[in-house]
What does this fold into?
Amino acid sequence: MTRNPKGSVVVETLKGRLRLRLPKFCPKRYLSLGLADTPRNRKIASLKAAQIEADILYERFDPTLERYRSPYQRPTEKMPLLTVWDAYVDARKSEVSITTLNIDFRRVRQRIQSFPVDLSESDQFKNWLGKHYSPGGSRRVLVQLRAACNWALQEGLIQSNPFSDLPRKGKQLKPKPQPFTRAERDKIISGFETHQHYSYYAPFVKFLFWTGARTSEAIGLRWKDLDQEFQFITFSEALVQGQRKDTKTHQSRRFPVNQALGELLLTIRPESFSPDALVFLSKTELAIDSHNFLNRAWRSVLGSFPTIQYRKQYATRHTFITLCLEEGVPVALIAQWVGNSPRTIWTSYAGIVSALPVPEP
It folds into this structure.
């Protein structure tokens, strides 16, 4: 392997971005160019490398590297926070999931757009965030911004990270699941069946209550995931934001179909269908949008029952698990059905099962 001559500057790629590696005697060994690795940008990088090599040769090299940065790369605390965030997202978009990009990263950008500030005004942004959002929601945004500014610091775009001093997260007790009772479950199902606008969701709601499936698993279920005799359902995928991904545990599982569930699936199965077709569809025959379902259909139907305390749709899963426990189904079997560990079932649900009398001797 041929060594580079002493004093040479090498063009490198790191995570799809171009940077220059400087000679060992330089105080700073790397200069990030903030450019994607493309043929055109490599020419720009080569010219920049040649400029630095010439400066080293003629003893006019700038060890701070400021002379070699593009104007937009020079560290400044007057840089808009949104500029830093957009640069960070652009650098990471090929590494993160579509869900992270479309939900988490988009949420942070919306917060910044609602209260645009420069880096030097980060304290004002923190105060604004705390006044308008919950502690948990605020912290999630600040953690993302801390990561973005750490990246910008490493890239030489900023001189310091104004979000580095986030207080350590206090230990919070995880709220216990709040399942519906059997009677409440049946009322909700009946409410969907008779609702003027949302009755077409009734089979979907029954399926959620009767299987304890995660919402994204039910939305992504295809007819090929059921065996021909309707004895088992195989949960191996989830559909999130229109993108297929593994289940939460990254493991597939088989769920046994009982008589009620089998009859439900038979009533909704089309006479002619593709194995890849979704089992549950929206009114427009597209994949169900979980956010629309929760904010429109679920809220509307539950709002018609003033005696039932509102809980988010995910309580359908809690309800199934709790009712199984009350029926005496072994914990290990429930865990296998719903894709949890037995330990999770014990720690999360054992304390909320309806009180049972002490067995007589």
